[in-house]
Amino acid sequence: MSPDTAAMPAETAEKNTPTQTAATDRLPRQQAPGRRRLQGAMNAEAVTEATRDDILQAATAEFARSGYEAASIAAIAAQTRSSKRMLYYHFGGKQQLYVAVLEAAYARVRRIDPPDGLAGVAPMDALRQYAQDAFDNFMQHQDFVRLVLFENLAGAQVARQSKAIAAISADNLRSLETIVQAGRQAGVMRRDFRVLDLFLTVVGMSFHAVSNRSSVQAALGVDMLGDTEAGLRRQLVVDLVCRYAAAAPKAR
Question: Ranges for the HTH tetR-type domain (predicted)?
Fold first, then answer.
């Protein structure tokens, strides 16, 4: 049984009169709630995927705005081409939908390393690019920051149990470890710091520009996401991590 037919009301014994039927036939057919219309060459699988994407996009905005507890399934359904019935069919429930939203948000900030790794790239240049990319990622995915803020307030209960989130975070750290290892082998990076600390510095400073934007603007009159300020903060992240990691110049 499909999700659309599962909740359809039973037919009544009373039938339409010929006049009613003729009048109804002249009306344009309405798309059923919670169902995407097939477009062009879209097959059923493509429609299902598009429906899930619609729901995830609306749910991301709702959870990022309200947090898990206050988020409304009705509000999410109202912002999509899906009904609440379809939402439960695709994701099972509010908890499962939230997990899918959080994991998808982490996936969007996953670092994608070039296929040839660090070939032809100086380690310090690679570190500089890593920091720039991380900062830009947070700027481009501000809903991720808000989702993580709410998740932290709830004790990171979902994130603790998600293997996908753990794997993505480990991949992001591993990319930095590869860069630092190359830098140390080349003698351009210090050996007396933990890569984890460097990673948390990049993430923390980039995250802070989004998470604390409103309070900093209220207290200091500085909009950290304004064009000028964002550029300055981006450069600050790069300069700090590169100077922290750089090996001391050799004495002549």
Answer: 49-109
Domain 109-245 classification at class level:
mainly alpha
pTM of the model: 0.78
Q: What is the pLDDT along the chain (252 residues), one digit of tens a residue?
A: 444 443 433 433 344 443 333 333 333 333 433 445 545 556 777 778 888 999 999 999 999 999 999 999 999 999 987 788 889 999 999 999 999 999 999 999 998 777 667 778 999 999 999 999 999 999 999 999 999 999 999 999 999 999 999 999 999 999 999 999 999 999 999 999 999 999 999 999 999 999 999 999 999 999 999 999 999 999 999 999 999 999 988 766
Dist. CA 113–CA 164, nearest whole Å: 18
Do 36-108 and 109-245 fold alike per CATH? yes
Domain spans of the chain, in order of start:
36-108, 109-245
